[in-house]
Design brief:
This protein is mainly beta. It has 2 helices and 31 strands.
């Protein structure tokens, strides 16, 4: 039976730049014996033992790097890495991190987060599919995923895809950014899909990947007159997106997938970003308002940490609004709300304490290119703001 790990990588504009700078070991198209291999493949993870000793695990992989060569900007490509257990004991694989927050990981068909694990029995294999969307300016790229194993010789596996982005089709701008949108108002974002070789751009179909976000965004595709085209462009289509928030306070994000008539860019994926503002706001040490993120200073497992924020509720519903902690991820984070304090009739403050208890396991969730982010969701009785979302970045050291 084959255990399958499926990776779908889509790189956000900032995330790719950070991911490309990570300290991956340099792969060369040569085997350990010095014999050159295909330019599409990276080096083997190590020499294979044909007869492993009894009761040992042995992770065997033919390549750890795959070169896509040239990729059209805005398109996606994928590659499968096969990890075989050539030993005599079960091989444990754990997904540790990826180089982009916009990465969906599925384990045996179910979406998972960093920390997910799989066991490969002797003689069986696991497959890791890396799919990356080229949503950055032309130039070289390198992206990947990190696994740990219980094979002492291959305790850490860095799988990566790389290549060069070229552009006969470009997106201007490269993402749909709504900025800050107030509850009850609308936000608008526009972009051009530009072709520099083909004479026509047609968006045949599109979808927003997040179902909740799809309910709040309306997308229209409009033609662009030749007189309005940027220099050297042959054709274009305009994407006009309107965001109507349904009340959840905090940052939001997702992707718009489009199918086009363009031969070099039949599938285009565009990141979506923005933040919703309303009567409920947050302040305190480590709180980054523009991104809706709480940044907790790195701490040691034995010490833990505690951070206090203040939630402010303003307006006609300040006194009657109640809040509670609806969900927290990962388990290393704890959150609790204190007693409300009435400052005046239309202004109430509520303390929010975010703890990392002593004894928590070591973990890194420091943003897009370093394990992703944690999340705290608060539910409220405010008629216009049913939820408040906080992103959390933190690190627990051994």
């Amino acid at each position: 039976m084959k255990t399958t790990l499926v990776w779908l990588l889509t790189a956000a504009t900032v995330g790719v730049a950070a991911g490309a700078a990570l300290g991956y070991w340099e792969a060369r198209p040569w085997t350990v014996s010095g014999e050159k291999v295909s330019p599409k493949s990276g080096p083997a993870a190590g020499p294979l033992q044909t007869q492993p000793p009894a009761n040992v695990t042995q992770a065997s992989i033919d390549e750890t790097t795959f070169n896509f060569d040239k990729m059209e900007s805005g398109t996606t490509q994928q590659h499968v890495f096969t990890i075989k257990n050539s030993g005599n004991s079960p091989l444990d694989l754990e997904f540790v991190s990826h180089t982009c927050k916009c990465t969906t990981v599925a384990l045996n068909g179910a979406s998972v987060e960093p920390g997910a694990a799989a066991t490969v029995q002797p003689g069986e294999s696991a497959e890791v599919l890396l799919e990356w969307a080229a949503k950055v300016p032309p130039g070289p790229f390198r992206h990947g995923a990190t696994f740990t194993t219980n094979d002492p010789k291959h305790a850490r596996l860095e799988l990566r895809v790389e290549g060069d982005i070229v552009a006969s089709t470009t997106l201007e701008p490269s993402l749909l950014s709504f900025g800050n949108v107030n509850v009850g108002a609308e936000g608008k974002a526009e972009m051009l899909v530009l072709a520099f070789i083909e004479p026509e751009v047609t968006v045949e179909s599109f979808e927003i990947t997040d179902p909740q976000l799809a309910e709040q965004i309306e997308v229209k595709i409009e033609p662009v007159e030749k007189s309005a085209l940027p220099e050297n462009a042959q054709a274009a289509a305009k994407v006009v997106a309107t965001f109507k928030p349904k009340g959840t306070i905090g940052p939001f994000g997702g992707s718009l997938k489009m199918k086009t008539n363009l031969k070099q860019a039949p599938n285009i994926e565009v990141p979506i970003y923005g933040s919703v503002k309303g009567d409920i706001s947050i302040a305190g040490a480590g709180w980054v308002e523009p991104t809706g993120t709480l940044r907790i200073s790195p701490t040691k497992s034995a010490e833990g940490s505690s951070t206090r924020l203040n939630l402010s509720v303003r307006g006609d519903h300040a006194k009657t609004t109640e809040l509670k902690v609806a969900s927290i991820k990962p388990d290393e984070l704890k959150a609790s709300l204190g007693e409300p304090k009435v400052i005046r009739d239309n202004f109430v403050q509520i303390p929010l304490t975010v703890d990392i208890p002593p004894g928590s396991r070591p973990i890194v969730m420091m943003g897009e290119d370093q394990g992703g982010e944690g999340e705290i969701i608060l539910s409220t009785t405010h008629p216009e703001t049913p939820e408040v979302r906080l992103k959390v970045v933190f690190m627990v050291k051994p």
